[in-house]
Amino acid sequence: MVLPSKPSYAFIQLAMSIWEKRISLVLVALVFAAPSEPAMAADQKASVVLESLTVKGRAPKTGYERDALFGKWADPDRNGCDARNEVLARDLKNELLDSDRCTVLTGEFTDPYSGTTLTFVRGQGTSNLVPIDHVVAVSDAWQKGAFKWDATKRVKFYNDPLNLQATLMKLNSQKGDGDAATWLPPLKSYRCTYVARQIAVKAKYSIWVTKAEKAAMKSILAKCPEQILPVR
Ligand SMILES: [Ca+2]
């Protein structure tokens, strides 16, 4: 009869303890990985995520006061720059920053909604020529779920670069609080990107879509079935 030798017994013990360690690491990882909001996985198809959004009619606009509820441009990520200047720096080229390394003074801008180009110059009567569009309009979000949010979530949404795009004053006014069923960028080649961004924002913040809006999004995405969601 052959008895297990001491080394092989020690090996079993070692193997067991490795497995125990692995299991406990997995358990710890599971506990700490629980996200506080839906994680934005990379390379998700817009058409697939669209199917995950709740479809519902608009809630009444009752109680909506944009400035009082959502505030002005803020810096929720606390990097020292308000969201407007961060997005200007992202969307303009050859931008010149003030000595605070944040405020955009000038820059070259190509509006993605229309293809129009202009030189941005910060100042009275010129800054407002390049407003920052909330791709999912603030009032649209309000009527599709944001009326239930607390102040922290409202400020985060209002200042989230994922939902922000520099554009032209004229187009920003035309859009108003339109969703994809009522307003789309005039430059047709940009519509897939635009709709994908709206879907990304709606998924991230659990904002619902109306039936007509979903149908409009689907018809845009039919022309670009491989369109991927932006993640920031
Ligand atoms: Ca910031």
State the main characteristics.
mainly alpha, three-stranded antiparallel sheet, two-stranded antiparallel sheet, 5 strands, globular, binds calcium ion
Structure notes:
It is a single chain. This protein is mainly alpha-helical. It has one domain. It contains 9 helices and 5 strands, in the order ααααββββααβααα. The chain has helices at 6-33, 46-50, 66-70, 83-91, 138-143, 151-158, 169-175, 191-204, 211-221, and strands at 93-97, 104-110, 117-121, 132-134, 164-166. The strands form 2 sheets. A 3-stranded antiparallel beta sheet has the order 1-2-3. It has a two-stranded antiparallel sheet with strand order 4-5. A hairpin with a 6-residue loop joins strand 1 and strand 2 (104-110). The longest helix is centred in the N-terminal third of the chain and has 28 residues, at 6-33. The protein is globular. It starts with 5 loop residues before the first helix and ends in an 11-residue tail after the last helix. Mean pLDDT is 88; it is low at 1-16 and 23-36. Calcium ion (CA) binds at residues 75, 77, 79, 81, 83, 86. Residues 75, 77, 79, 81, 83, 86 line the site of calcium ion.
